[in-house]
TrEMBL record, chains A, B:
GO terms for molecular function: catalytic activity; FAD binding. This is FAD/FMN-containing dehydrogenase. Residues 35-216 form the FAD-binding PCMH-type domain. PROSITE patterns: FAD_PCMH (PS51387). Gene3D superfamilies: 3.30.465.10, 3.30.70.2190, 3.30.70.2740, Uridine Diphospho-n-acetylenolpyruvylglucosamine Reductase, domain 2, Vanillyl-alcohol Oxidase, Chain A, domain 4. GO terms for biological process: respiratory electron transport chain. Belongs to the FAD-binding oxidoreductase/transferase type 4 family. Its cofactor is FAD. The lineage of its organism: Bacteria, Pseudomonadati, Pseudomonadota, Alphaproteobacteria, Hyphomicrobiales. Keywords: FAD, Flavoprotein.
Length: 474, 474
């Protein structure tokens, strides 16, 4: 056993320092099976003090540290490189809900608490925590914070950044910044909190957070709506927003190709419409109570959409079961994609008003390079966030498609750049997009990022190879 | 004319470099008349490029720069010191609305645009910009961003930080960071935007911003409600929130002493209640439409409050005129305070659940030191933000009160510290609270702030003496 491992075991106990291949297996590969790394050890601290001790030891030994929560990153953000030098710092033993304040509408949690547990604890206190995403049963709050998670309720409640009041962070040198305040307003200095949120574990290790809670909505209304295209969907979004205001909780867009794919692969998905439309949106409203009023309001908005020629057909859920069936379609997209083959995936955002035009231009541009390529486009239209995926032409050799996939990504991201969009709306940069950063960010912005990184992690030990491209300057 | 002035005049024209005492007068004193400084020149750039040129010149001459918008800071944040070395950089000529995107719900503006002009432009486009505060007719967006302004709609829409998507910032060395994106979701790096927001002009000069717009609420319902005390008000807040959700737009608290003061000094203020109550709240709901439904909902919440013994008496506005009269009371507080005498003012925040207990404890604590002292307490209860003001005892010599005021402030802020609150919820640190920073911030947080300041403004030229206390380390 080397010195580093011995010191870590001295603090955490040998049971919490995993060195065997078998013990490490779940930690060194990302859940998508896309990245495979190696670790010198996986450590499992049980407290903030433990994390601080680990960081002090690793700093002394100059050992790189890869923080990991539920290991559900979409971009390889929590998987070490192949060098075998890294210590994986698993936060999942930090899993206490420290406090719920139902009057102040806040919850204070350890970073390793699973998202679903926070949702449940809020519900048990008669409150609501709105962050909701596919991995909610296994992702952790710390990971949600590191990645500034989004999901299906951003339109109304914002991303993880907007849902957070305070943070506790262990710095690269093991010092603990206690920013665990529960304040809605505090103008006494620089926004350290926001520096750590979304930094993908490259500036510090988040160990605790104070999150906002909300009044619990007791009424929901959902509609599955056929539209002509993204432009019609955008116009309908404006109508629904004007009529429904903050009640609008989700506005999810899917193209007809997307729907066809779902129907092909997801056995229990049923379209609530007479025919597969050119495109569709799933709309959800929520409110404190009064479901009939909510449904009427949604009907009125859709009637206005029909009148304006925006809505081709629509189904309104009559109960929770029907609403669930609508969501089953939306949630089946990722699964259907996997079953169809290996897609070139893009998680892009842009000004909401640019989306319809972007889809048309990007579709044409990728088809010029790859005739027959199948764009499978869906996403959070109200947030300007599209999951723009490309499947090979029917019958195309997967290897041939894989060979042109980087070129297709360049085309898609060039179009995003022209609209001042983002090449990662919610999935983060991680390893997946790190090499693109110098192409997509202005040199001044990269320089400022490098300086911030150097300030907080001068030895470059925190999650190396993620988010921050290797410095090219100096 | 010295070299610096000549260079500035060469870029901006002599008409935009003010050196005479008379021309400088409106810029060197804060609007409250509390701080009076001196300037080497007041410069009035007309574009971002102008600002960049000014910063390059000032950096070369090592001249301190004090950015200034509408000069409405509550904490002397835009007033230079008395040395006469500073260049005041007035942003008011940068006053264009660059773009309104009614589909994407964004507005892009120059930093010098007056807040009311943004509100009006949003309204003209059928949209709504929610930031609203007393100085809205003269404060600028750049100042709102530098101070992370709050106001009366934070409860629903958040502070300026939450209302902002993108920024354009001129750095201390004159380079321009173009972060003027209109993205709702963008996880591609560190939150530079949030570093500049709330930094009071000490890290860079904000020259432009992309702000969020919202659906325009067409219905309002307002109530003026008598309650026993802050504890009852807090319980009522929970009830109203549960019943009304996001419709709750304002929940403003005033003590009975506060009301009595208003009635004494504000001739046109009329209480809509039979008698002056021990305390009161002004509640406002807003929604897309359907004013009768909104009023009914408010009535139901208040009925529940009466049932629970929380509400002593209540008046619901029957029309806009009555609602305006309710707000006249709330808005009269500051004016009434000024007329009554010189108060020791505190703009504090804390966890919402701690407020009632704080008021009781702080009242008792200040009375021990200053018998007869009159706490005049009001504020944004839903945000945990109180304006906790202390007037001298009736008939007390103002000089004697001024002598103990710092001790009273220490007592109030100590109580805030015990509840992990903030000594500046929305007014900023500026000059007013800068000396308290070392007492109220953890050493590690101050150290990180100093490092960030040094990174972005190594020569310490940006708004010296504001927000950042002089470094005591190294």
């Amino acid at each position: 056993m080397d010195d580093l491992i011995a010191e870590l075991a001295g603090v955490l106990g040998e049971a919490n320092v995993l060195v065997s291949e078998q013990d490490q297996a779940p930690f060194i590969t990302d859940w998508l099976g896309k990245y495979r790394g190696a670790a010198r050890a996986v450590v499992r601290p049980g407290s903030t003090a433990d994390v601080a001790a680990v960081m002090r030891i690793c700093a002394r030994h100059k050992a790189p540290v890869v923080p990991q929560g539920g290991n559900t990153s979409m971009s390889g953000g929590a998987t070490p490189d192949a060098s075998g030098q890294a210590i994986i710092l698993s936060l999942t033993r930090l899993n206490s809900i420290r406090n719920i304040d139902a009057v102040g509408n806040t919850i204070t949690v350890d970073a390793g608490v699973v998202l679903a547990k926070v949702q449940q604890a809020a519900g048990a206190a008669g409150r609501f925590f709105p962050l909701s995403l596919g991995a909610e049963g296994s992702c952790t709050i710390g990971g949600n914070l590191a990645a500034n998670a989004g999901g299906v309720a951003v339109l109304r409640y914002g991303t993880m950044r907007e849902l957070t009041l305070g943070l506790e962070v262990v710095l690269a040198d093991g010092r603990v910044w206690d920013g665990l305040t529960a304040l809605r307003k505090d103008n006494t200095g620089y926004a350290l909190r926001d520096l750590f949120i979304g930094s993908e574990g490259t500036l510090g290790v988040i160990t605790g957070a104070v999150l906002k809670l909300f009044a619990r909505p007791h009424a929901r209304a959902s509609a599955f709506v056929a539209v002509r295209d993204a432009a019609a969907a955008l116009a309908l979004l404006a109508t629904v927003r004007d009529r429904c205001g903050d009640r609008l909780t989700a506005f999810e867009f899917m193209t007809g190709e997307c729907l066809a794919l779902i129907l092909r692969h997801i056995g229990d998905a049923r379209l609530p419409l007479a025919a597969t439309p050119p495109a569709a949106v799933l709309i959800e409203l929520s409110d404190q109570d009064d479901e009939p009023e909510l449904r009427e309001r949604l009907e009125a908005a859709l009637a206005e959409g029909i009148e304006a020629g925006l809505v081709l057909d629509a189904a309104i859920a009559q109960d929770g079961t029907q609403a669930k069936a609508f969501w089953r379609i939306r949630e089946g997209v990722s699964e259907a994609l996997v079953r169809e083959g290996k897609a070139a995936k893009h998680d892009v955002s842009m000004p909401v008003s640019a989306m319809a035009e972007f889809v048309a231009v990007a579709d044409a541009a990728v088809r010029r390079v790859a005739p027959g390529v199948r764009p499978i486009v869906f996403g959070h239209l109200g947030d300007g966030n599209l999951h723009y995926n490309l499947l090979p032409a029917e019958g195309q050799d997967p290897a041939a498609f894989a060979a042109i996939a980087p070129e297709l990504t360049r085309i898609v991201h060039d179009e995003i750049g022209r609209r001042r969009g983002s090449i990662s709306a919610e999935h983060g940069i991680g390893q997946l997009r790190v090499d693109e950063m110098p192409l997509r960010k202005a040199p001044l912005e990269l320089e400022l990022m490098h300086q911030l990184k150097h300030l907080l992690d001068p030895a470059g030990l925190l999650n190396p190879g993620k988010l921050m491209p290797a410095a090219t300057k100096n």
